[in-house]
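Quick start: read one record
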Amino acid sequence: MFKNLFSFEGRIRRTEYGISFIVYVICYLIIRISSGGAGGSKMILFGFIPMLWFLWSQGAKRCHDIGKSGWWQIIPFCFLWLIFQEGEAGDNEYGDNPKNNGSYDSQQYENPFPEKPTINDGNSNTQEHKD
């Protein structure tokens, strides 16, 4: 999660996009509140440009997860759709499925209960052990 924050390449999941949006809103509020004095316009300029780039790059990656171009995010209120729409299953033209990249819910665990042992009674056929 949160790799290549300012890159427009690849795909991200809904959770990462939602967290990115919340981080943007918090930073926006901090910059807006703290820019109320002399030099405030410079602070807004240098604070908002990186944050907008961050939000647009995350939005483009989220659009890619749905199978759309990053330009879709300029549609008003598209961010709501990006938060709730599930991504395409499997890989698509924009990259690998982010659900299969070692995230906590896609890890494969070994079965703690091994299969029943087989007993070879000398015949060519193998029989399962019966209790």
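The beta strands are 118-119, 127-128.
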